[in-house]
């Protein structure tokens, strides 16, 4: 994009005057942005720094070892990989004019199948220019369609900092080069050389006033809480930080601490009291409360299950009683012809047995609860043929099903037989 506003023109001009990324900076990036590993496969090891391979029969599978070729200290990893292709960002934090500038350099580290060949390449891909009023202008190289790679061949130019989806894809969390130059206001608001694991641009915006508590947390060195706050976006017990600060209590693990405060709330313990808010051993107190809560919740669940069981029993009883009432007029009814005997299911137990034998849902779907429905079973020589549903309002056959909801050879005969005797059913029902 061409620079259009006064601000964009200024940024474009200042950007063109920025010094080149220095060799010292690149050297730092190569050393600090990547893990230094010795990859072990059986007795062979190779060095991620010089790419050379050697034999090691000690069997050591973890810990550190020195490369016999380049002398680098390496962490041992068991891996069959022979190639390397890693990309990382180094972020150079500098100030120009009234702008806080973040220069993001992409560094690639590669090794092919051949041993002894590691090569790097680096390219400045993006710059974020931020002013005190939290306005941001982005200069960057274009990205490919998938937004997963920079197009190196194209120069850096002005970009929309927010994309089509409202997502800022230029908020890069790079390894911050230790020589940091900050605008005075950022120093005043507590920022030094470390960004405490938070994406630099996000932390800068936060302490310029975007987030309510970031500056306070940074100034009081509550870094654990700061990084939790920046990731979560809110603090539910902001007063607690003041109590901690008054008592010289540093929160190390923000998310566990937040969990702990919620547990205090759960047990109605006073989150304004330093005794609770500043535990000597956070993990121990946290785990104690978790266990206590677990027991209480288990009790509640057990009680709930007990109630449900009683309710189920009660309902079952009601169902049986009302079914017995409804089936009374049909008890002993029999329709017989040529060996086929059709009888109503006369108890809930019979529904269960019919459903089980015929592999259908007459019991599961609680047909015995349906008011206008009479269920009959058709049998021959004690063998179940089909289950028939008759509607007691319309006196029509709704369905007649054999095993697994299929139809038997006697299907038509059964239908004909029931229809012929519908008068009997109608008389019994009335
Ligand atoms: Zn080496």
**What share of the residues does DSSP label as strand, in percent?**
15-25%
Order of helices and strands: HHEEEEEEEEEEEHHHHHHHHEEHEEEHH
**Cα-based radius of gyration, to the nearest Å:** 38 Å
Ligands, deduplicated: zinc ion
* Biggest sheet architecture: 6 strands, mixed
Distance between the termini: 86 Å
Largest sheet, spatial ordering of strands: 10-9-8-7-6-11
The overall pLDDT average reads 93
Separate helix tally: 13
Helical content band: 25-40%
Number of strands: 16
User: How many structural domains does the protein architecture include?
Assistant: 3
Model regions low in confidence, pLDDT < 50 over at least 5 residues: none
Bulk shape: elongated
> Which structural class fits the helix and strand makeup?
alpha+beta
Protein architecture, described:
By secondary structure, the protein is of the alpha+beta class. The chain folds into 3 domains: 6-200, no CATH class; 211-329, no CATH class; 331-429, Aminopeptidase (3-Layer(aba) Sandwich). Helix content is 36%, strand content 23%. The chain has 13 helices and 16 strands. The strands form 3 sheets. Strands 10-9-8-7-6-11 form a 6-stranded mixed sheet, with helices on both faces. Helix 8 packs across helix 10 (282-327). The mean pLDDT is 93. Bound molecules: zinc ion. Zinc ion binds at residues 47, 49-50, 52, 67, 69-70, 72. Zinc ion binds next to loops.
